[in-house]
Amino acid sequence: xxxxxxxxxxxGSALPTTRHYPTSQVLNVRGNLFMIDAGEGAQQQYRRLxxxxxRLKQIFISHLHGDHCFGLFGLLSTLSLLGRTGDxxxxxxxxxxxxxxxxxxKFCRDMHFKVIINPLSPWxxxxxxxxxxxxxxxxxxxxxxxxCGFLFEEKQKPAHIIREMIDFYNIPVKExxxxxxxADFITxxxxxxxxxxxxxxxxxxxxxxxxxxxxxxxxxxxxxxGVDLLFHEATFMQADLARAKQTFHSSAMxxxxxxxxxxxxxxxxxxxxxxxxxxxxxxxxxxxxxPETIAAYEGLKINI
Length: 304
Known about the structure:
The protein is of the alpha/beta class and 304 residues long. The protein is built from eleven helices and 18 strands. The chain has helices at residues 42-48, 66-69, 71-81, 96-107, 163-168, 173-180, 195-198, 221-224, 241-246, 252-262, 280-289, and strands at residues 4-10, 24-29, 32-38, 56-60, 88-93, 115-120, 127-130, 134-140, 148-154, 160-161, 185-186, 192-193, 199-200, 207-211, 229-233, 267-270, 293-295, 301-303. Strand 14, helix 8 (221-224) and strand 15 form a beta-alpha-beta unit. It is globular and about 75 Å long.
C-alpha cells in the first residue's frame, strides 16, 4: 500500500461537545497504522473510519491530559478481546506507566500481548522510533505539563535504476543494489560510469509534524521546517488570546504564523475550544496569514 494517509478521529479539546471528539489521529504509512493521541471515543472513531485493529503498530501520546489519553484504556481492552498477540509499544511520558498498569491489572488480566511503555523526554528533540519506512522524533512543546509533538519522516528511498543503462553497460545483478545506494560502476576496461548516468533520484520523502497542545513557540520552527503537512493546535481565536496564554494554547493566527515561518507546504488546524460552535472563523483567521490552511474534522482522510 504505497501511501501515507492521515485519519482524523477527533479534533476537539478538553470540554466534551456534540460536535467534536477529543483529539486522536491515525497515520497510515503503507498499511501500518500509528495512533497519535487517544482521546475518549478513539476506538469508536477508529471503527467508523474503517481502520483495522490488526494493523495498529505503535501509539504515541503527546501528554497526559485526559482529552489525549482517556481513550487508551478502552482501546487496550478491545485489542485483548480481539485476540491480539503482538506486543504494542506506547510512546509516552514516564508517568504513563503508573497510570496504565493499575487499569490493566484490573480489567486486562487475560491479555495475550505485552504493552510496552517507551518513556520519552518531552524536553528534547530526539528520535524515538524507527523502522524500514519511517522514523519518528519528538518535538518539545510549550504546555502546562510535560508535552511533546511528533515528527514522522519517511525514509529516503533508493535511487531508481535506468534499465537501458544497466543493459548498455552489462552491469551484473549483484552490483545493482550498490548502484541504487549511490555507487558508481567500473567497467572491465576501467572506465568509471558515474551513478548519475545510471539512476534517477527517488522522490522527496514525506514529512508530517503533529503539534498539540502548545502555546506559541518559535523554538519548534527549525524542527518542522518544510514539512509536507503540519498539524498545529488552534484552540482559540486571536480575540481570546489572553485565555490562550493562560491555558498554554495557541490561536489560529499563531498557528498560521508558525506555519509561515517554517515554510511548511500545508497547515491543518484543530483542537478547537468548545466555545466555538462554528470553526469557519478560525479557519479564515489562519488563512489570512497562511492561505494553505485546512481545518481538521472528524472523519477527514488526507493523503500527504
